[in-house]
Amino acid sequence: MTAFSLDPAQTAWCEELRTLAGERLRPLAEKGEPGHVNRPLIAALGELGLLDRLLGSGALDLCLLRESLARGCTEAETALALQGLGTYPVVQAGTAAHRARWLPEVRAGRAVAAFALSEPGAGSDAAALALDARPAPDGWRLTGEKCWISNAPEADFYTVFARTTRGAGARGVTAFLVPADRPGLTGTPLDMLSPHPIGALAFDGVPVTHDDVLGEPDRGFRVAMNTLNLFRPSVGAFALGMAGAALEATVEHTATRRAFGGPLGDLQAVSHQVAEMATRTEAARLLVYAAAAAYDAGEPGVPRRAAMAKLYATETAQFVVDTAVQLHGARALRRGHLLEHLYREVRAPRIYEGASEVQRTIIAKDLYANREPSA
Ligand SMILES: Cc1cc2nc3c(=O)[nH]c(=O)nc-3n(C[C@H](O)[C@H](O)[C@H](O)COP(=O)(O)OP(=O)(O)OC[C@H]3O[C@@H](n4cnc5c(N)ncnc54)[C@H](O)[C@@H]3O)c2cc1C
Predict the structure, then answer these.
(1) What are the pLDDT tens digits along the chain (375 aa)?
(2) Ligand 1 within 6 A of 148 CB?
(3) Ligand 1 atom 48 nearest Cα
């Protein structure tokens, strides 16, 4: 593939995924309870081999998976992505024992993973995290809170980032693999606008040992950042899937809905908005694919390109979904309408895994750091 087009096998795979999402996964998603982990849906992702593919894939495959699933079933897309986010630290930095214990379960869709970085006092400024890992004879005791953790409190294991060295910022953070049944670990669900499961975790002296460390003590922030670097373009791909679904619905609606003696699309004020939606979506797609391909090829400039892709695609999806709602009129706001669902789903990606403002900061820092000094 080039940075600008997919090869026929990739295109066919995307079509297959979209069909699976609509026909096989959507009915399971509809049976789920909003705000709770949908285990039958995750099991189906396992049976279909998609979780296996997720754990073995590079950034571009991850983007194609997320975009294609999101076209037909955002719940399936999000369930898959969260398995990746929670498990990638184990793939990347886990011991042979961690991998043997958890990866086959995740691949089969039997174990639910979560990535626990954010805290009430540390969101965008993740290096300020304060979950206290206090030394104990056999390891550490974790005390404190995590919040906004997707899949909490129903996950089976958490990749948890805790402070092992006070005052050391990003250099004093350790990543731990914490099974959900550890004593002292409790959680509360949070009721959010978007329908996916999310909650807060309370740690009351939760015991962890050296066997639970992912990577090395005090080097856990790198584990978190490596995970987020891989996932950042793919958040853009999720957004692209939503934008694509909203655009498709809008072309259909404005071609068939009649007003003032003809279809809405005959009004130039309408058709030009549809053209704008399509153009921005295509531009976002190119940025996402190119950033993911650059990641896979180990090219320079990946953080900047990934930030541009995530920023532009999530902002574009917000614009596209909002415009789609406008062009559909009242019906789009009816509970259960595709666009009502997408309107709720599309908001959070502009905030999580680095808010849009944080992406702009990454881009700007890179530009200044790499500027050619004037003679
Ligand atoms: C649906 C959802 C799912 C989530 N899932 C997870 C999860 O699974 N695991 C996890 O660890 N976390 C998760 N999060 C948390 C997410 O990562 C944080 O919300 C995010 O990092 C922002 O932190 P915050 O909400 O505390 O906002 P704050 O850090 O308080 O920032 C608030 C706002 O201030 C502005 N801002 C912040 N920093 C800057 C800056 N440097 N320059 C300019 N403006 C800035 C931005 O507008 C930002 O949105 C999730 C959040 C949501 C909404």
Answers:
(1) 455 789 999 999 999 999 999 999 999 999 999 999 999 999 999 999 999 999 988 999 999 999 999 999 999 999 999 999 999 999 999 999 999 999 999 999 999 999 999 999 999 999 999 999 999 999 999 999 999 999 999 999 999 999 999 999 999 999 999 999 999 999 999 999 988 999 999 999 999 999 999 999 999 999 999 999 999 999 999 999 999 999 999 999 999 999 999 999 999 999 999 999 999 999 999 999 999 999 999 999 999 999 999 999 999 999 999 999 999 999 999 999 999 999 999 999 999 999 999 999 999 999 999 998 887
(2) yes
(3) 355
Q: Ligand 1 atom closest to Cα of 114?
A: 8
Residue 224 CA to ligand 1 centre (angstroms) = 15
What distance in angstroms lies between residue 366's CA and the mean position of ligand 1's atoms? 21
- 15 labelled catalytic: no
Q: Whole-model pTM?
A: 0.97
3-state secondary structure the chain: CECCECCHHHHHHHHHHHHHHHHHHHHHHHHCCCCCCCHHHHHHHHHCCHHHHHHHCCHHHHHHHHHHHHHHCHHHHHHHHHHHHHHHHHHHHCCHHHHHHHHHHHHCCCCCEEEECCECCECCCHHHCCCEEEEECCEEEEEEEEEEEECCCCCCEEEEEEECCCCCHHHHEEEEEEECCCCCEEEEECCCCCCCCEEEEEEEEEEECHHHEECCCCEHHHHHHHHHHHHHHHHHHHHHHHHHHHHHHHHHHHHHCEECCEEHHHCHHHHHHHHHHHHHHHHHHHHHHHHHHHHHHCCCCHHHHHHHHHHHHHHHHHHHHHHHHHHHHHHHHCCCCHHHHHHHHCCHHHCCCCCHHHHHHHHHHHHHHCCCCCC
